[in-house]
Amino acid sequence: MKKEKILGLAVLIMGLLSGCEKFEPEETAVSVNQKGQVVSYVKESFDKDYYSSDELEASIDQAILDYNTAGGSENVKKKKFEVKDQNAELTMSYASGDDYSKFNQVTFFTGDVLTAYQAGYDFSGKFQSVEKGQVTGADVTGNDILNSYNYGIVILTEPILVKVPGNIVYASDNVEITGKKSARVLSEAEAGAEAQEPETNEDGAISLSPVSSGSAKETEGSTAALAYILYE
Known about the structure:
Elements: H1 3-20, E1 29-32, E2 38-45, H2 53-71, E3 76-84, E4 87-94, H3 97-104, E5 108-112, H4 113-118, E6 127-131, E7 134-140, H5 142-146, E8 152-156, E9 161-163, E10 168-172, E11 175-177, E12 182-185, E13 227-231
Parallel strand pairs: 1-9
Antiparallel strand pairs: 1-2, 2-4, 3-4, 5-8, 6-7, 6-10, 8-13, 9-12, 10-13, 11-12
């Protein structure tokens, strides 16, 4: 086989592989990779006359700078910011689930079941079993989950779409399975509460962050229900 054909085939294979990993959600979402790194996709309405895209982007850049400066690293990065057709879209990357948690002031854990248990997370709730993107049972106990200590897990409270790097095998009962590797965390807001205006700061500028999409920022003592997504 000629060298050019070999190179062409290699390029084609790499293109197919990268295409399989592409995740372009139409709603606010997060994705986690095998290394525990997180990418957030935030989508908000941006249809008020007093909203300023320049001010919003500047505030995002400043928040990232402040966080990275305080931590002495570049763990949080802005990948994309765009305002188009009265919608604002922001894509950010985080070196770890811990960075995501601290930057957005929310509960967010990535790791395995054993590490989550050792960190003090409670597995006493109700769980559902999942196979090939479909719920197959709703009688899974916390003990069953703990026996699967080597499974990967994401724990969070935000009502958003989540993509994990493996096939989902278990999820808590406040999670809707949307695919083999994706699930949506349910909330009271999604269950019927009136939609809220996006958060704004004192100057009236919109606040664009995952937690502004239908949920308030968590504070110490928050009773927001934890959602668990396990994958292999």
